[in-house]
């Protein structure tokens, strides 16, 4: 590599971009380039690097060039075990070095962030309960949220409250409680009292104040304030700030897509959700991305495409009530009424008291465009959902 100044310049710049992008993830401790560059070009065991730099993971890679084409490979390695957490490669042209550097940095960071968090969750799960701190409790809560069950959601709230008991200013835990309450309400899981809703809204606002520089805290709080309090302007500003802090946050792009679509801006919503999928194609919450795309394409009146995305969502997460209801709505608009009734039956198994009236009541607190609400409820009526 040292014999090709252009390639070396490209690699150094790309590493800088990746370090900068990783540093935007607030829960990550990222070493500066001066420390990591001391190992450049050396064949050193990652376990040794872990010991010397006191880090749990190392991101390493290489570049191969053929003419104006380059292939960049990257591996994320656990320094304790030497196991690969993530590996991938990226191909591009050197016609615009800066654009390629940006693309690679965005792709790498977007892909490894969920992998890193999953690795941290597994580490926290292995720890002895008595030694858990606020961060470990929060990670366990995230794992319970990912399970997406009624019991898991309750457990996530309990773990997050334990984290707040240790550190009252721990904003991610406060935001996660509010997000869990949002999902409990939209799923129809157990009665969520107005007191619970008020607490969730209070915690969302508190977390924004205390975690104003944490992208994950901001998107969780923002989407909760949209859904539980109808505060669309605040929600949009908060989610936009999350994206400004970390443009590679797939979950912030997902939150943006949902909010935009329900404001009857489906094309912008589709762009945000597709960007989320490009950043994190194997995300543990990827079924939210695909369900959001189903909603967006429904609102754009592109029913066949919407139905394909809804199919992907229900396969990946068959307990997500919104995806089941979307299948009923879409099949109804596609005049596949027998299928629509079957999907509605499955949705009612999860939420037996669902009616047009209860959905109107729920939607009353959410900032949803009247045109979008009419389209959605029209599909549910056509599928056979009773008025009362």
Concise structural overview:
This protein has 388 residues and is mostly helical. It has helices at 5-23, 33-36, 46-53, 97-126, 134-147, 150-166, 171-187, 194-210, 215-229, 232-245, 250-262, 266-279, 286-299, 303-316, 321-333, 337-350, 356-364, 370-383; strands spanning 57-66, 69-78, 84-93. The protein folds into three domains: 5-111, Rossmann fold (3-Layer(aba) Sandwich), CATH 3.40.50; 127-247, Serine Threonine Protein Phosphatase 5, Tetratricopeptide repeat (Alpha Horseshoe), CATH 1.25.40.10; 251-388, Tetratricopeptide repeat domain (Serine Threonine Protein Phosphatase 5, Tetratricopeptide repeat, Alpha Horseshoe), CATH 1.25.40.10.
Overall pLDDT level: 87
Write down the secondary-structure element order.
Answer: HHHEEEHHHHHHHHHHHHHHH
Within CATH, the superfamily of the largest domain carries the name Tetratricopeptide repeat domain
Report the uncertain regions: none
Number of domains: 3
Instruction: Give the CATH architecture of the largest domain.
Output: Alpha Horseshoe
Radius of gyration: 22 Å
Can you list the strand order of the major beta sheet? Answer: 1-2-3
How many strand segments?
A: 3
Distance between the termini: 71 Å
CATH class of the largest domain, named Mainly Alpha
What structural class is derived from the secondary structure elements?
Answer: mainly alpha
What percent of residues are in strands?
Answer: 5-15%
Helical content class: 55-70%
Any idea of the CATH topology of the largest domain? Serine Threonine Protein Phosphatase 5, Tetratricopeptide repeat
Largest sheet: number of strands, sense, barrel closure = 3 strands, antiparallel
Shape: globular
Count up the helices. 18
């Amino acid at each position: 590599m040292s014999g090709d100044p252009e390639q070396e310049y490209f690699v150094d710049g790309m590493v800088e971009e990746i370090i900068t992008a990783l540093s935007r993830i607030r829960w990550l401790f990222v070493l500066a380039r001066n420390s990591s560059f001391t190992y450049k070009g050396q064949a050193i065991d990652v376990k040794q690097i872990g010991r010397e730099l006191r880090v749990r993971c190392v991101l390493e890679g290489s570049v191969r060039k053929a003419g104006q084409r380059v292939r960049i490979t990257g591996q994320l390695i656990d320094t304790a075990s030497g196991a690969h957490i993530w590996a991938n490669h990226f191909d591009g042209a050197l016609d615009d070095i800066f654009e390629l550097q940006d693309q690679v940095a965005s792709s790498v960071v977007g892909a490894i962030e969920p992998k890193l968090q999953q690795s941290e969750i597994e580490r926290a799960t292995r720890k002895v309960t008595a030694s858990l701190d606020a961060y470990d409790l929060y990670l366990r809560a995230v794992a319970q949220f990912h399970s997406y069950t009624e019991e898991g959601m309750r457990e996530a709230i309990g773990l997050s409250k334990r984290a707040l008991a240790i550190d009252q200013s721990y904003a991610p835990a406060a935001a996660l409680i509010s997000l869990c309450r949002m999902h409990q309400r939209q799923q129809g899981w157990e009665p969520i009292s107005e007191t619970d809703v008020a607490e969730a809204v209070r915690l969302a606002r508190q977390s924004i104040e205390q975690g104003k520089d944490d992208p994950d805290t901001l998107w969780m709080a923002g989407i909760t304030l949209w859904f539980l309090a109808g505060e669309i302007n605040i929600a949009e500003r908060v989610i936009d700030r999350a994206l400004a802090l970390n443009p590679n946050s797939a979950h912030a792009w997902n939150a943006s897509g949902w909010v935009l679509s329900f404001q009857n801006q489906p094309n912008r919503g589709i762009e945000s959700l597709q960007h989320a999928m490009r950043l994190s194609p194997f995300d543990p919450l990827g079924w939210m991305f695909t369900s959001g795309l189903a909603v967006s394409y429904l609102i754009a009146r592109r029913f066949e495409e919407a139905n394909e995305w809804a199919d992907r969502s229900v396969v990946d997460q068959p307990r997500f009530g919104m995806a089941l209801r979307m299948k009923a709505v879409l099949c109804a608009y596609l005049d596949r009424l027998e299928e629509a009734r079957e999907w509605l039956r499955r949705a009612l198994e999860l939420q037996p008291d669902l009616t047009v009236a209860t959905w109107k009541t729920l939607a009353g607190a959410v900032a949803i465009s009247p045109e979008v609400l009419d389209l959605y409820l029209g599909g549910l009526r056509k599928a056979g959902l009773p008025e009362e």
